[in-house]
Amino acid sequence: QVQLLESGGGSVQAGGSLRLSCAASGFTRSDYYMAWFRQAPGKEREGVAVIDRHGSARYARSVTGRFTISKDNANNTLYLIMNSLKPDDTARYFCAADDGTAIMLFNPAEYLYWGQGTQVTVSS
Known about the structure:
mainly beta; seven-stranded mixed sheet; 11 strands; 0% helix; 48% strand
């Protein structure tokens, strides 16, 4: 059974940094995408960053140049380093993984496995 467990959220001032972690377990295949999504109150869940099994990353335009997604395959851990945080980055951040069939990589419907999320709050 696949399990994803996020950690590392918190409250920071604008311009600050945070690192989110997602501990993954239970995968039986390696050809899957992992991603970070976020959801603010009253808004739809949106894709932030995606990484494939080779380490190739893609980012939403709103975070390009500020966020970095990476994966430690040896420890089955996904990371999101967030720099130059803005109040608009305030949201609950979720780790997600697909089952190897995702096509629209920033569409949450493409992902089968989800963590419980971790809250990020950025104050101005």
